[in-house]
Sequence to fold (143 residues):
Amino acid sequence: MQADTKTTDVVKSTLNKVSEGYASRDLGLLRSAFAPDPDVIMYGTGADEKRVGVDEIALQAQRDWSQTDSAIVNYGWTSISAAGNVAWAATDATFELGVGGEEMRIPARITFVLEQRDEQWLIVHAHFSLPAAGQEEGEAFPS
Fold:
């Protein structure tokens, strides 16, 4: 169910905390977007990037920052739906990274599940993925 305008705006505000906190390397802002629950989950794009709990999510961000000169997540097309106190979002995003003096842009897909707590919407699940390399348009699987 498509989220109403108020819910959409508040959820987008939470998602913007993720992108703004990540870009500015502000761990407090980044953490504020996630529920403080011990079972909050974030899957990253790396094989070892399953993070459970906001402390592990923070460690993942710190690892990313230690390996980059700059790291920005820009959201493109975004869909936000909701039912009751649960919302889910999907977005086509781009990671803009500075690594060793080189600039790179990596397309990504991100999904979020959020729960409303009081007037806040907090992320309880996040999943980052990259489109499969070697998979041509119209093909079901990579070659």
Summary: The mean pLDDT is 95.
